[in-house]
Structure formats: structure tokens, C-alpha cells
Description:
Helices cover 45% and strands 11% of the residues. By secondary structure, it is mostly helical. It has a two-stranded antiparallel sheet.
Amino acid sequence: MTRSRSIRTDSPTFTRLVLGSPDLRRALASSPGEKLKVAACPEQTELHLLTVTGSGGFGEGYLGDLDLGMYGPERRKAALEAYFSSDFLPRMDQFLALLRALRDAVTQWPVPEK
């Protein structure tokens, strides 16, 4: 799960706890190209920003591949329906499962004081 992923942390103990979550490990195994980032929000010390980025999987190319401006209303609607009926919804479900698993793993343990 983590062999091919770069892990950088300022809290190795906390990171080991988070990566020990079975749900997160399963979600990561099913999303090999995705990258996770957990960062403290600048003005809210008790809040963290969770980010998932990918290698062509989640969040990349969703609507950027469609040039809808050149289509009329009917063709635009047909293009969007075809796009969303393809693999978009399963990819989004997988993305949300990964993000939820990360949230649950991070919030399961108290963040250590620095």
C-alpha cells in the first residue's frame, strides 16, 4: 500500500497510526495512483484539509475534456449525459470512499501536540 508512495510527515507516530487504519489501507489499495495530503488549516489549528489528487483518475479531466461551449443546448445535454453515464459515477464513488477513509483514519486519533 505504501511501498510505491512517497510519505512525508512531521509526525511519524501519528502517521503510523493513521496508515494503520484497515479501511484506509483498503481504499489506498483500490486507488494505486492517488495521492493523499493532510495539512493543518492555516487559521484553524483544530481543523485539517484533506486532499486527494491523482494520476488521471479522480479530479482530473472530468469536465476539462468536454468543450461544451461549441455545442448547442441539445448536443451539450447529450454530451454531458454520455459523459456522466460512462465511468464518472463509479470513479466519484471510489474517490469519496478514499476521502472518507482518510477522514476517519485521521480523526480516529488525537493529533499530537507539537
